[in-house]
Amino acid sequence: MKPLLFAIWGIMLFSSCIGTDLIEETEVPEQVLISTNISSIKIGDEVLFEAIYTNKYGMAENKQVIWSTITPETVSVTPSGLIRALKAGDAVIKATAANAETTRIIKVSADPVIETGINTRSGIFMSAGSGSYTVTGDVMITTQNGKSKITVNDNFKASIGPSLFLLLTNHTNGSYMVVNNNPAINGTSAQISLNRLTNFQGAMSWDVPAGVDIKNYKYALLYCTLGPVFGFAELK
């Protein structure tokens, strides 16, 4: 009798998120994501930069990343990503892998750079069209002195789900997340799990993990590990 009850309970839990939803996998642009969260260095410093390549399905692949610079008077750069600061000014670092490339501007200073300004990005959650699941409200990311926090306002409200996570990601398609071994729990360099939701309405905030460069991520997304995306907000 007990095994039968456990089986029925498991089916009910699984269906609470999946239902009859169908999420189609879509192709997205290849990307190189610089994972080293550094925006300023001082003359004489050396830093090894790292990056991740993601393919047309948004999944990380082991591709060689080649590093270079268009400002050799400011920094020297080895192909493997070792950056050495030579002269004060703005340095442009470029990372290339396969058919994708990206750049990062870093400030080189004669003295340590103290970051005191507050940088803000914000967006409005919209439902993803996954059946009856909905999410609304404002979301904001603030960064000060290298530390970032994501906050949802009082008007935030989401459908209740047993395994609902808040992520920073570059895609709104849930099917590649399932294929990619539930990174909502494990995390990858292409998407970062912030927290599992225990409240589904009202103001809340979460610290972004240290070392995560939020500039690499375009969306805040609510994702149920049993299947659908509930909703997302484009961060601008």
What is the topology?
Layout: H1 2-18, E1 31-34, E2 40-42, E3 46-48, E4 51-54, E5 60-61, E6 66-69, E7 75-77, E8 82-85, E9 89-97, E10 100-109, E11 118-127, E12 135-144, E13 147-152, E14 157-158, E15 164-169, H2 175-179, H3 183-186, E16 192-196, E17 204-207, E18 219-224, E19 229-234
Parallel strand pairs: 2-10
Antiparallel strand pairs: 1-4, 3-8, 4-5, 6-9, 7-8, 9-10, 11-12, 11-19, 12-13, 12-14, 13-17, 15-16, 15-18, 18-19
Report the top-level CATH class of the largest domain.
Answer: Mainly Beta
> Which structural class fits the helix and strand makeup?
mainly beta
CATH topology of the largest domain: Immunoglobulin-like
Low-pLDDT stretches: 4-11, 18-23, 175-187
* CATH architecture identity of the largest domain: Sandwich
Q: Give a quick account of the main beta sheet: strands, pairing sense, barrel closure.
A: 9 strands, antiparallel
Strand-and-helix sequence, N→C? HEEEEEEEEEEEEEEEHHEEEE
Distance between the termini: 54 Å
Mean pLDDT: 78
Q: Would you summarize the structure shown here?
A:
The protein is mainly beta and 236 residues long. The chain has helices spanning 2-18, 175-179, 183-186, and strands at 31-34, 40-42, 46-48, 51-54, 60-61, 66-69, 75-77, 82-85, 89-97, 100-109, 118-127, 135-144, 147-152, 157-158, 164-169, 192-196, 204-207, 219-224, 229-234. The protein is globular and about 55 Å long.
